[in-house]
């Protein structure tokens, strides 16, 4: 440090660990402090950490700027070849003459080359810092010659802020300083991605910074706020509510009002609820400003200007406008009142009181007096008792008049104070009522949201249960079909071997395998028989409900084949029948000793007779066919 060119204006402080103080010679002009070894080590580790974080932030912002310039150069290059570029909206926004495009391309390319070089230097700087830290550092020198160390810059950063917050602050600066719409759009997208990774506290910090450094005259700031409101309007308005709190100081109130009124004028209000909330916040801030004890005429002039410019719009959107306007009128009378605009000393000098005029008159000679004072003056030389009495009476009368004027002025002041106090109490009451109303509205909103969520959850569970039941029913059906298939394969029909027919498909034939695993009803019937005609529809309905486990083979007792076919078409169900008067039918009729019709004989697939009185059992159990089928199976 001894080789450094010192300047008298420099104020240098040297911090040395107590254990190392004897190893370092003092330097002229440098103030030295010894500090505890643990604190000294903590400071060194802090500096190391902040050094690496600073390099990381520089690499991040430079890397993202390189990415933007690459995209921008690419878009400029494809502007002439529009057919090979998908996003024609961006090309239309960048539409420019060939000369301007060439100039923009040259400038962007130069910037890109410079940024690439800077990125490479940062990489080397990071490696250099890592090597230096790993090899051990004996001394840190933190130089500060002004630069970015101004109060305005220092107050925007806090030592305990995360890297994400630092990144978003750098991005916001890029947005506000962007010269092109494309550049601002790129950094706005970067801010969205950064905020997605933030915690709720970090997001609130970022939003506060945006409103702190933003200006309603900056078009990119307007675009950013619009974007934030489209994505998460509740967060924006939650931040606005933090602005409307008491005891922030009148300058802070006025700063917030300027930004919000600028936004109120400039934002694209697609949602009128958003506009109303902004107006509500502006009115509440102006009300707090008017009620502040530090209110001066220049502050009131700003409020008056805003009221005259936006009063009509604010009245239509804000429920707090009437409260503000009432206080505004009161303050307006206070500032514009003549008796409050002229001090007591000014009033006393502008119109001299009677005693002062009389005392002044006693110093004049008779030759210089006016006719008005002649009666008094012409007797002054004698100093008679009457003259003194007259003067004293005039002095007393003038004193009473002055006291009355002072009493009247005091009464007016007291009345004004009482009125202001009453208005303040009414304002406080209205604020409390408004707060209760908002709390009640919020409670109602939360309750409604809870009810909606419960209904949605109930609906979701019902839908899941419905799907589960459907899946279970489908599984059971598949299982039943598999079991039925296995049962049929294990129980083939063995009691007959014949060609079978169905009247609904007259050109197709079947064999005995259609009866595998099923109870078989041999149905002897004829159209000419009235009981047969009555029973056949009953059997048809019965069969339709249990056809997976029960099949029918119709053996005709009709007078001819035509009559059988007519009987099949008009009365029978979808079951099988033998050829008219075939030998097998006659054989079965003989074997089973069928002497009357209708007759329904129930057999198992192997030919075992279950019931010869099936038609009566079907009639008795027509309303519960499954129970009868299970009974036959159990026999």
TrEMBL record:
Q: Read off the Pfam families from this record.
A: Thioredoxin_8 (PF13905)
**Does this entry carry the keyword Transferase?**
no
> What is its EC class?
oxidoreductase
| Record's catalysed reaction(s) | [protein]-dithiol + NADP(+) = [protein]-disulfide + NADPH + H(+); [protein]-dithiol + NAD(+) = [protein]-disulfide + NADH + H(+)
| Gene3D superfamilies linked | Glutaredoxin (3.40.30.10)
Q: Which InterPro entries match?
A: Nucleoredoxin-like, Thioredoxin-like_fold, Thioredoxin-like_sf, Thioredoxin_domain
Q: What is its EC number?
A: 1.8.1.8
Question: What are the UniProt keywords, alphabetically?
Answer: NAD, Oxidoreductase, Repeat
Question: What is an example of a GO molecular function annotated in this UniProt entry?
Answer: protein-disulfide reductase [NAD(P)H] activity
Domain spans labelled Thioredoxin: 484-635
Query: Region annotation Disordered: residue ranges?
Result: 455-483
Basic and acidic residues composition-biased segments:
455-482
Q: Which PROSITE patterns match?
A: THIOREDOXIN_2
Membership in a protein family: Belongs to the nucleoredoxin family.
What is the designated name of this protein? Answer: protein-disulfide reductase
